[in-house]
Amino acid sequence: MKKIIVTGGAGYIGSHTAVELMNAGYDVAIIDNLSNSDASVLGGIEEITGKQPVFYNIDLCNKEDLNYCLEKEKDADAIIHFAAFKAVGESQQFPMKYYNNNVVGMVNLLDCIIKNKLNNFVFSSSCTVYGEADELPVTENSPEKKAESAYGFTKQIGERMLADVSQADSLRVISLRYFNPIGAHDTAIIGELPLGVPNNLVPFITQTAIGIREQLTVFGNDYDTPDGTNIRDYIHVVDLAKAHVKAVERLMEKKSSDNLEIFNLGTGVGNSVLEVVQTFEKVTGVKLNYKIGSRRAGDVVSIYADTNKAGDVLGWKTERDLANALSTAWKWELALKEKRDKNQ
Ligand code: UFG
Questions:
Q1: Average pLDDT of 226-246?
Q2: Which residue is catalytic, options 56, 130, 151, 223?
Q3: What percent of the chain has pLDDT above 90?
Q4: Which of 20, 182, 309, 324 is most buried, judged by most C-beta within 10 A?
Q5: Is the Cβ–Cβ distance between 338 and 286 less than 8 Å?
Q6: How far apart, in whole angstroms, are the C-alpha atoms of residue 110 and residue 106?
Q7: Per-residue DSSP letters for 124-169?
Q8: How far is CA 61 from CA 29, 64, 95, 150, 196, in A?
Q9: Which domains does the chain have, with CATH numbers?
Q10: Ligand 1 environment, Cβ below 6 A
Q11: What distance separates the 2 farthest-apart alpha carbons in the chain?
């Protein structure tokens, strides 16, 4: 059986990817320090797949532990690297937290990977590397702009390190640039678990709808877009997870034309904030309490993906739409409430 190491496998995208890998017949070894995730997610993965992933509670900043773990797992066929902090605003407040975790952690990981001769690497990148694009949709060749945040810069640094390492060593890399992942597993056993007040739109919507938050603020309706609100490419997390299975297969089958390949992972469709709100209300039948507020610093006006390369080369495309993603996000929020009510 082929084995895939998943750093950050207890996190939002990591846990959904672990499930898709295990459902596709892979063994999975998760490395996660649970700093932004919950151990219960591991039980959720087992409940869905009927199999237990191997789990290492290790911080990538602890190089000794990390190397011990990779030595033990050096027969793995590929590694997918999710473990990183991801809150744009927080990264502006605490940049060193981001440089330490996302950059130092990744330097350690790459050192240990090279040392233990692991050859196939999938990187969790972001459309944030494009900044405010001049032309839409963005292709993988669209120019990178100066990162708007420390978080965004850590993704640019990560890709740059991989470009250099894949030239100098025998590492084959696929970097996946995610657009806006939303939604949850159909079973509502795993989903997004934001700590504290959510920064992202969809968890804020579902928490408002369930009564945890009073009101959603739409950050600005005076942008140069049809309804004045920002446009993003919202992709179902399960679709996104499936792309990782395709990526590891491509690496293992040595199909890549280059040592480093980059793919946009989005739907190719841009939706405004108000469209997301209206679609949520339509699919759930719940009226959302929202108001229009001022712009949020650092938001790009519009971004959505050109997905041709992912379709043609990776052989992957999205199967679910915004309505489906929002209904699974809502089902997940209801499941969380049920759990809370039971524990009271
Ligand atoms: N928004 C609101 N109100 C909220 C939260 C968000 O109106 O309470 C709006 C934002 O202004 C934006 C849209 O909803 O227009 C989406 O915002 P998110 O915070 O959900 O997502 P972002 O597009 O800002 O960020 C996402 C990822 C980042 C990644 C970035 C790249 O969360 O990790 O895309 O553009 F870096």
A1: 98
A2: 151
A3: 95
A4: 182
A5: no
A6: 6
A7: EEEGGGG-S-SSSSBPTTSPPPPPSSHHHHHHHHHHHHHHHHHHHS
A8: 18, 9, 16, 18, 24
A9: 3-183+235-267 (3.40.50.720)
A10: 86, 88, 126-128, 152, 180, 199-201, 204, 216-219, 230, 232, 273, 296, 299
A11: 56
